Amino acid sequence: MRTAKILFKGEEAGILMQYDDGAFEFHYHDRWVNDDNKPPISLTLPKSLRAYHSRFLFPFFYNMLPEGTNKQVVCQLNRIDQKDYFGLLLNTAKYDTIGAVTVIKIEQE
């Protein structure tokens, strides 16, 4: 299982996980959901105390990935399989993204 913190404007909003079978789960932290001043990270992932599940990387996160030649270069330089979308997300969305969301890998112990 691989896990990442999802930050919105630098503040942790939730957790994204990829299970060993390739499925994904995203859930907001309770404090984020209960704070009326905190927005959802995406219109496709409205604030909810229930976790979201998907067999594929959620479209919101998939759309944060590089494409074409940029994707090829990033994958080659970081030795990431081009179909490892979660690995690609962890390497490319941790610092500078177009939107307010960043993705930080949680190291497993």
UniProtKB/TrEMBL annotation:
Superkingdom field: Bacteria
Span of domain HipA N-terminal subdomain: 5-103
Pfam families hit by this protein: Couple_hipA
InterPro entries in the cross-refs: HipA_N1 (IPR017508)
Name the record gives this protein: HipA N-terminal domain-containing protein
